[in-house]
Structure formats: structure tokens, C-alpha cells
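Reply to dn_fold:

You asked what the input looked like. This is it:
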Amino acid sequence: MLAKRIIPCLDIKDGKTVKGVNFVNFRDAGDPVELGRQYSLQGADELVYLDITASHEGRKTFTDLVRKVAAEVNIPFTVGGGINALQDVDRLLNAGADKVSLNSSALRNPGLINEIAANFGAQVCVVAIDANFEDNDWRCYLNGGRIPTERYLFEWAKEAQERGAGEILFTSMTHDGVKTGYANEALNELNKLLSIPVIASGGAGTKEHFRDAFLKGNADAALAASVFHFGEIPISELKEYLAKENIPVRL
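and this is what came back:
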């Protein structure tokens, strides 16, 4: 069985790491390069850097930050935000990123997934889906949870896989930042539907929440932000706990 991955997520706004609740009310969480370096030393398996206002403000993800992170961090990291063309992917991979995460741009132009997979390989292309549970279904949102679409989680995730996505990063907007656990039922459905890895995001508050994402949600990886940024759950401690719960992790 493949080891389950623990992935700190760093939401970047104006060059700083921030954390919000339900995608709003952001507070400063520190320097993104230094945090990434610390997480790498603490045993994180991967990192995700998301420029959370890039799509909204029409900017490109800042390449300089990616270069600085690559110089300090020795684990794979994914970069997302404002990636709209193959040139953006090329620039970020050349700056040192291992993968790119598409969200709004993939919903607006699904063919971009095919292009990235064909040019750089499926392993480079992570499709991030921000979905909110409303009217008994998971509606997908654009631009950092600001704009509702007519796409829904399961059909969109299936299409993304068929177009060449290598992973799905599913963030439950309903659970984001409230620390009551991940959307395990939806994660389990995704796991049954897809053959590519599913990363759980939104809702981590305790070590048990990570355990449940793996055991109940069958997630391949669990991503979290504030519990790591504010020192609530040390990564090494979390991994030791998961190992005791018979969940395969890299120690």
C-alpha cells in the first residue's frame, strides 16, 4: 500500500502566508519560504503554494517566490494561482516547482488540462476543485470560492481525470477553516469514482480528522493549513499518531 501523504498548504496573498475561514477573514501566518523550509525539515511529504488572489486579480503566480522556495526546500511542491497557459506552467516548472495546480482556468478552459498533460505529463497536472455543499450537491466555484458555476464535483472530477489530470485536490468550502473534519463521504465517493489520487482539503482540526480522511474518506493525501501554521499539530507528532493507527506514512 502506498504511503499516505501529509501536505501543508500555504495560501499566499501579497507575498505572505495567510489563513482564512470559509475562504474569507484572512490573517497573517508568516513567511512562505521559511515556513516551507520548516515543514520540509519536520517531515512533510509535499507542499502546496496557492496564490489565492491571482485569478481574482488577473495576475500571474509570482515566479520569484517559487525560485526562493525551490532553493530552500527538498521535498516536492505544487504551485497554483493564475495559471492560464502552457507558458505559465513552463515558467513555474523552470523556477523549480514540481507540479502545477489548476482551478478556475481549468473550469473555464478544460482543454488546458489536456494540453498540460500532453506537454509535461499527467503527474505535473493537479486539478483543484473548490466545492460547496448546497441543495444536496457539491457545486464547484471559481476565483477562490467567489463565483458559483454550473459544474458539480463528481462529474467535473471524472472529466478532469479523463482529460489527463494526475491528481484531484478537493477542498470542501463548507468545511474550510472550521476544523470539524474533512468531507469524508464526498472523499470516499471520489475515491470510488476515480483511479488517480485524491487529496483531501478543508476541515482539519485534530489528528483524528487526518485519520478519518484516510480511513473513512480513503484519501491518498491530506492537506491542511492553520493547524500547521499556528503550531497546533506538529507534523512529526501527527505522523507518529497515524502510524500507531496502522495508516502507512513515511516517518
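The longest strand covers residues 125-134.
Hope that clears it up.
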